[in-house]
Specification:
This protein has 19 helices and 14 strands. It is α/β, with parallel strands linked by helices. 44% of the residues lie in helices and 13% in strands. The longest helix is centred in the C-terminal third of the chain and has 28 residues.
Length: 499
């Protein structure tokens, strides 16, 4: 049996980092962890081929080779997914689909997909495979149960061309203990974090390292610190020990802001090799935080919270939202001021959207305020709800935030603010030819041709002479800024074309 595993293309988005990746000759930020995990669950005797459309084109010969086509996708990949399905159907191939897009919206694709294997594959894939081999496969496989991810296999990394990616991915836990009303994580994966063992994590890391990987590894947990006790007692000590004999690999993850309340935990994470953490700030408005039930962010100085993580040695990436019912037109200036004061260089700002399955979606559907499918892009200036604020004013204010925070002046000021607070751990980093190439390309693209060149050179020389150990990070942030501006400019062009 020949199985083709397909991962559809992402559009040019905030998180794609496409414009930044060109500086280091990479094609995509990370590979499809879900698909290579599914591949490891398929019969060993089956021939498997994975094609990520973000790093290479799909040929008809690839499709003709396959007996079965497995497709996994997120909502943001919907357009490419439909195109993939049509091509496979033209060649009369049987399609099996799973992943977040189909778990939420499988009805949209019933005419194109032969079998849906939804929710967690550890539960639903084996019943499908058994029925398929017996000739009795059903259209739909789904479950309300959650699996024990200690049973999840090591992803089949041999299907991936590692050279195409900037980072690899690993998962320690699934689920989040919090209950933010706009987030569909708990609907998909539950409130109680389910965890792997320390040995599982080490085995996965050992495989990546044995394949020659020496770059970033992203822990894709919904909230990495959902079980602090296990982290402190088992996982982080194991990672610290692993790092003693390993160089080059650094970790990135996502966590809630209460990480800043635990100095011991932050110290252990940095010692284990964590350099960056994404946190959902959402809004500086207490009313907005109350509205969306973001209780972990309430009644605290969020700027100081960010600073504490930076001082501990963690770069902070942040998510922000405008368009809550409690927001008025002052929110745009407040968001700009907060982002600048906090020194969050990678600030993803989006309009409020309501994913299917969330409490927000249920409430707004009852109020008749759901107007369309969501794009799945957190920063494209679209929303699938009718906001309380006038939509034109909301969009104007939203684009003004992005215009300001990613203008060269404010962006480079924010980088300087971040670098002043950030205290990096001293870790051995393996410098690759790609990084050297990126450095010289940044000089040409940003320092000579770029409209930001005045600010680029100011940061360049200040960091080089006054904070030299932060100099590589200053160059990296400068390249990030180029990407963010390109995405913003493209979104503005698209918005203007609709007018």
């Amino acid at each position: 049996m020949n199985v083709l595993l397909l991962y559809p293309e992402f559009p040019d988005t905030f998180w794609s980092f496409k414009h930044a990746l060109r500086f280091i000759n990479k094609e995509a930020s990370s590979p499809p962890l879900g698909l290579i995990t599914v591949a490891a669950m398929l019969p060993e005797a089956w021939n498997k081929r994975l094609i990520d459309l973000n790093v290479r084109n799909l040929k008809d010969s690839d499709i003709k080779w396959a007996d079965l086509v497995f497709v996994s996708a997120m909502i943001i990949q919907k357009k490419s997914t439909r195109e993939v399905f049509l091509r496979c159907k033209e060649l009369n191939k049987k399609i099996i689909a799973g992943g977040p897009l189909f778990t939420a919206e499988y009805e949209e694709f019933e005419d194109l997909v032969d079998h849906f294997v939804l929710n967690e594959a550890e539960i639903t894939l084996q019943p499908f495979l058994q029925d398929f081999q017996n000739g009795t496969a059903k259209k739909l496989y789904q479950t309300n149960e959650f699996c024990d991810i200690k049973d999840s296999p090591i992803p089949q990394w041999n299907l991936i061309d590692l050279k195409k990616y900037d980072s690899l991915s690993i998962q320690f836990s699934r689920g989040c203990p919090f209950n933010c009303d706009f987030c569909n994580i708990t609907a998909l994966l539950g409130h109680k974090p389910r965890i792997k063992t320390a040995q599982q994590i080490i085995n996965e890391l050992d495989l990546m390292y044995s394949l020659g990987w020496r770059r970033n590894i992203f822990f894709v947990d919904d909230n990495f610190i959902g079980n602090k006790r296990i982290l402190k007692e088992e996982i982080l000590p194991a990672l610290i020990e692993w790092h003693k004999n390993k160089t080059g690999c650094q970790f990135i993850t996502e966590a809630s802001v209460n990480l800043a309340d635990d100095e011991e935990l932050m110290k252990l994470m940095v010692e284990a090799g964590f350099k960056s953490v994404f946190v959902g700030i959402e809004t500086p408005s207490e009313e907005g935080l109350t509205e969306c039930q973001k209780t972990q962010n309430k009644n605290r100085d969020l700027v100081q919270t960010v600073k504490e993580m930076q001082h501990a040695g963690l770069q902070v990436m942040g998510g922000f939202i405008v368009g809550f019912d409690s927001d008025n037109e002052s929110i745009f200036k407040r968001q700009i001021e907060f982002i600048q004061q906090s020194g969050i260089v990678t600030a993803m700002v989006g309009l409020l959207q309501a994913p299917i399955g969330t409490k927000l979606y249920q409430r707004l559907q009852t109020e008749g305020r759901i107007v369309s499918d969501m794009s799945g892009d957190n920063a494209d200036g679209t929303t699938n709800i009718i906001p309380k604020m006038d939509l034109v004013s909301l969009k104007d204010g939203y684009f003004e935030i992005l215009r300001e925070i990613y203008s060269p002046k404010l962006f480079y000021e924010r980088v300087a603010n971040c670098l002043a607070s950030y205290q990096p751990a001293v870790q051995a980093v393996q410098l690759e030819a790609n990084e050297i190439y990126a450095f010289f390309r940044s000089i040409w693209k940003l320092g000579i041709l770029g409209k930001e060149r005045k600010y680029y050179w100011k940061l360049f020389f200040h960091t080089l002479f006054h904070e030299p150990k932060k100099f590589p990070l200053a160059i990296t942030f400068s390249i990030y800024g180029y990407h963010f501006r390109k995405v913003f400019e493209n979104n503005i062009k698209l918005e203007n074309s609709k007018s």
